[in-house]
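Renewal narrative, Specific Aim 1. Our central claim is that a sequence can be written position by position from structural information alone. The example that follows is taken directly from our test logs and has not been curated for this report. It begins with the structure tokens describing the chain, in the order in which they were read.
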């Protein structure tokens, strides 16, 4: 039976998200060992030992459903962030919060506005609901063009995504420009501020998204345990929204969407301040090293407030590095065929990348 006649047209044309190639798959393909993955912006130092201990302790209870309200994690995060516990919405990664927003707000005839290139899941969740993506090009220095995003809002706009710091460029916008932007938005539009890389930010004037959550109804900040907390494989993220918006998202959320091991690991990771600080310092030192060394090779890079950096390294660089056992993210699908996104790794991984690039460029890359 052919299903094309009954599948929704906007799903037939949907381009699925393409995840980075797993290390194990690359090693099987090349018949080699020791490959490194610098493609998916995962934690360089891995998960907290406290989180690992919490997972082991919770294993005997996996035959039970998790706490669907994430009560302990909700209480801990609300205290840490100084928000009402009911303002928090949890998901299987922040990606699920994006889907909940699309589910609650979008349908055929509606529009969602976001910068481009930006996070690849935005057009996926928008088109998945039959709505229309309005993509606003980045500025020449590859940052959000906030005035143009504001100008793109129409009476059909229901949702705006702002990825800050932006993925895949690593660039960010400052508080003054962001505040002007939010003040320009109509009250009828929901603003989703995607801060997956919030904990890695180094700029001192980074916007206070929670200020706007408290001040502007229809605002949500999205964060995750996948990056600095090293729990990408467990899939847990959360949104902080005003009470009304959070309530609608909770209505649309599936029960038990966050698994038991993810909940206990996230709670333990929050307590391991030393581990998070080591992840932050490792990343900062790695970013400085890669900017310096890649610059010495004549490879242009951009300032980053995330755990990755953007490099203009030439066409097929990702493919050539792949054959050397180094996985980075090619950006052809973002309209940037000469660029790659490099996750900042451990010192030895960063050094291997630089040495490999040096050798490839000496060979005429």
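The sequence written for that structure reads:
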């Amino acid at each position: 039976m052919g299903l094309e006649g009954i599948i929704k047209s906007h799903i037939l044309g949907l381009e699925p998200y393409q995840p980075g190639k797993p290390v194990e798959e690359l090693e099987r393909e090349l018949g080699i060992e020791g490959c490194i993955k610098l493609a998916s912006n995962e934690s360089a130092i891995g998960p907290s030992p406290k989180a690992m201990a919490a997972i082991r302790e919770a294993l005997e209870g996996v035959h039970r459903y998790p706490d669907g309200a994430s009560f302990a994690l909700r209480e801990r995060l609300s205290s840490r962030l100084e928000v009402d516990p009911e303002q928090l919405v949890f998901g299987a990664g922040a990606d699920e919060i994006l889907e909940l927003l699309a589910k609650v707000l979008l349908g055929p005839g509606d529009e969602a506005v976001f910068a481009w290139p930006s996070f690849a899941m935005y057009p996926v969740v928008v088109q998945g609901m039959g709505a229309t993506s309005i993509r606003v090009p980045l500025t020449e220095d590859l940052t959000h063009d906030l005035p143009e995003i504001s100008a793109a809002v129409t009476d059909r706009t229901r949702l705006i995504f702002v990825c800050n710091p932006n993925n895949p460029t690593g660039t960010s916008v400052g508080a003054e420009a962001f505040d002007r932007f939010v003040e320009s938005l109509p009250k009828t539009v929901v603003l989703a501020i995607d801060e997956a890389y919030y904990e890695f930010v180094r700029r001192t004037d980074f916007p206070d998204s929670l200020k706007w959550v408290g001040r502007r109804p229809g605002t949500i900040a999205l964060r995750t345990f996948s990056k600095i907390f090293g729990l990408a494989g467990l899939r847990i993220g959360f949104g902080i929204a005003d009470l009304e918006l959070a309530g609608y998202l909770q209505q649309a959320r599936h029960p038990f969407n966050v698994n038991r091991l993810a909940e206990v690991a996230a709670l333990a990771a929050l307590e391991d301040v030393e581990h998070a600080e080591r992840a932050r310092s490792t990343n900062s030192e790695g970013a400085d090293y890669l900017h310096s060394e890649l610059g010495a090779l004549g490879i242009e890079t951009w300032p980053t407030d995330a755990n990755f950096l953007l490099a203009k390294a030439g066409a097929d660089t990702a493919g050539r590095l792949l054959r050397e056992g180094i996985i980075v993210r090619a950006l052809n699908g973002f309209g940037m065929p000469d660029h790659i996104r490099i996750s900042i790794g451990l010192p030895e991984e960063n050094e291997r990348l630089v040495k490999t690039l040096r050798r490839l460029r000496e060979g005429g890359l």
